[in-house]
Amino acid sequence: MNIVIMGPPGVGKGTQSHAVTDSKGVVHISTGDILRMGIRSGSELGRKVYDIMTAGDLVSDDLMMELVKDRLSQDDVKDGWLLDGFPRTYVQADGLIGMLDEIGQKIDAVLVLQAPAEEIVRRLEGRITCRSCNEVANLTGFAAVQPRFCPFCGAKEDPKRPGKPALYQRADDKEDTIRHRLEVFRKRTLPAAWRLEERYPLYEIDGLGTPEEVGARIASVLG
Ligand code: AMP
What gap in Å lies between CA 177 and CA 160, rounded to an integer? Predict the structure, then answer.
């Protein structure tokens, strides 16, 4: 099964992606995670995209298409994948359709998660990420990032930089940047969803409620 999950930042794409990959046995491909790994490892890709990501803007279509084409050609994704964070523009959606046609694949479901802007700002301001395992936790009201243990992997420090806390707030999870990313989603990413809908089944999913409630809505459309 091939699935695309879309939605504004903070709507729960990451959490739901993990649930879907577990239940459907498909491989999770998150373009945001791939880029962040590039930044952390100091690769050329990371250096190219750091400023763009920190500002909440989109990385160029050419670079993203190359990255996804390369990832989709690897062996481990042959039996199914879930794309999270791609496509983000009309051009990327069009490119993805072309890429899949070329290799004789299709998308079985495009999931578009939706939630009101105010709820998203509230969620993202309380979001922290672990430098060790890259998991994301939601600690509403979590103001300053304190050295403490990651609830997922237990790390207290960045494994690469002892003394530096494992948990941090992503630079693009600050309020102004969140609002900008929401605008980018509305103007540039929704048209990508509607482009995919011309070819594949698309389901709009209400992203409000507990992760379990949202997960149940997704499970009911994936069957
Ligand atoms: P995410 O983790 O999906 O929220 O992505 C974080 C950031 O990575 C985005 O705000 C963009 O700067 C960049 N990014 C991730 N995926 C894409 C994409 N498909 N196209 C352009 N930029 C992307």
Answer: 27
Q: Is the CB of 52 under 6 A from ligand 1?
A: yes
Residue 54, CB-side half-sphere exposure with 13 Å CA sphere: 8
- Residue 64: CB within 6 Å of ligand 1? yes
- Which residue lies with its CA nearest to atom 6 of ligand 1? 32
Q: Please tell me the residue having the least CA distance from ligand 1 atom 8.
A: 32
Beta-strand ranges (E) seen in 7-146 are 27-30, 81-84, 109-114, 127-130, 136-138
Comparing C-alpha atoms, which of 29, 64, 27, 25 is closest to residue 48? 64
What is the whole-number distance in angstroms between the Cα of residue 154 and the centre of ligand 1? 27
Pocket perturbation via mutation, ligand 1, pick of 13, 33, 35 by most ligand atoms within 8 A of CB: 35
Residues facing residue 113 across a β-bridge: 205
181 lines ligand 1 (CB under 6 A): yes
Give the domains, in start order, of the chain with CATH numbers: 2-115+176-222 (3.40.50.300), 127-168 (no CATH)
Element (H, E) at 204: strand 202-206
What pLDDT score does 145 carry? 47
Q: What is the pLDDT of residue 141?
A: 46
Assigned token pair, 76: 């481990």
Give the chain's residues under pLDDT 50.
Answer: 141-145
